[in-house]
Request: fold
Amino acid sequence: MVLESLTSPFKAELHPGRLFFLGFVYCSIAIFLSLWIFKSYSSLIMVFLTTMACVPLVYNTIKMEEEKDLQDMGERWLLKEHAKALAAFMFLFVGITIAATLWYVVLPAETIAILFETQTATISTINGAATGMVTGQGALFVQIFLNNIKVFIFCILFSFVYGAGAIFILTWNASVIGTAMGNFIRSNLSFYSDLLGFEKTAQYFQVISIGLLRYVIHGIPEIAAYFTAGLAGGIISVAVIKHDFGTRKFEHILLDSADLILFSIFLLLIAGLLEVWVTPVLF
Reply:
């Protein structure tokens, strides 16, 4: 397909920054197609269309990473090679998130009410659960960490069962984060809409920067953890499909995947600590 031919796994790992623009384009096209063809269900259809565009690249990248595992290289070298794939996936995710944020900010209110309906309902549910059940920072950290672990398990299972299935979970998360960021920016821009001249412009840039930074601080290690988990599940899935199980090479693949899983859990701990004790202090 046309979108699939825009880049290759090798080019993606060589120039990961380019995937930011690719993610932005994928999401933007998905948004306009979903509004045009499936407007009433666009909040979910745009996630599916974005996922469909990402799957070939993500799956072929996972296949390439699995082939590296079969070369009997050292674990440190493998982790360094996997880091290239993770960097590419992160830029892809950020591109999708920024696209969702941008279109939330610039589209008419009646359009975003339909386009981000499910995402807005999800955010309301999460906020309601957080305020209704948590009585202290320690309890909040436990709740956030357990919720992140649930998403982490989904990423492994979806990647193992569907090959590149984790990209659906992560695209959905990107749309939810984009909705939250867009709502924050849009709400605060309207607050400063009565200001004039340079002061108004300065306030606009300040609001946009704060809206991005409040989610980036803990979001980067959290999403990196999900991609790491998805990569681990995907590598095992590809190895099983190729009938490598039962061999010494498959044992090496399992060891490499276990290292990725442990690293992703460590990243989730860092993300939880930042979200509970750092982000609220700064914002």
